[in-house]
Amino acid sequence: MSFTSTLLAWYAEHGRHDLLWRQTTDPYRIWISEIILQQTRVSQGQQYYERFVERFPTVADLAQASEDEVLRLWQGLGYYSRARNLHAAAKQIMEGGGAFPTNYTDVRALKGVGPYTAAAICAFAYGQPHAVVDGNVYRVLARYFGITTPIDGTAGKKEFAQLADSLLARTAPADYNSAIMDFGALQCTPASPHCEQCPLCESCQAYHQRLINDLPMKSKRTAVSERHFLYLLIHDAEHLLLERRPAGDIWQGLYQPLLIEYQAPATEQTMLDDIHKVLHNCEGAVIQSPAFRFRHILTHRILHLTCYAIHCPTLPVIPSLQPVPFCQLDAYAMPRAILTAIEQLGVGQD
Question: Which of 27, 70, 98, 279 stands the most exposed, by the fewest C-beta atoms within 10 Å?
């Protein structure tokens, strides 16, 4: 059998046919699922998908929501620009008349929609012959055909896109795209792929040339930066002071306690001195000890967080910070790291 026929046969037996977004041709729901699944495991993404389409069953419902509500529902998924782009694109659709685009060019024009997502929507919703190319597809094709062109360069992206298109089952684009993505996710995995049980093993170039661990190739690695955050969870008996994070940085638009950032690791004494400067007009303030310290890893960033809970009988007035009642914290979208700190320090849990 050919590469394509073998994949389709494998998918018929082993594919993840029970995924909710594979049981619909609604372009809106397929769009939501594809955006959620970027940088997110399927097991985690399915829970968010169900909540999201329950709260926003149509593109009109999403467009009418506030950004805060959208971010709050997205909380914990990370890469929050995805949620902001979804919200903006929903408004874009409504401004264009409210009908979801039905061709690749118009779908691609939606904010936050790249070539992969546009191809997926058009194939899964409309049965149009567009091949998807994601991390799983790169890996399967690079290994099977023994392609050493780096996938992060212009030449590589073009080569893989053309190859994927040439292999596409044009009468069954949805099944083929699902098949190759599932094959990469379940069979031809990044580490320890199941080569001995692989139906493509006999003709796989990487397997025969012992290049499984080398393909696909990348030409460059993004440097990892480290940042050092001191968070002050300043609260009274009923409120926690929060501010909204600015644009142009991680966690844009989400809420956080007072932040002091250092360019390098700071000593505990330096941090305590800075805390006292913030609290100089706050009589009776109690700094809970010890601080909660942990690392939080993002793509290409490592955050070193030190978090102090500080009880003030009367909350200080600090520009940009607002008192939020403990009972309303769930309405404020916060990074997972901040939620962890709040929980570990027991703020608002008395």
Answer: 98
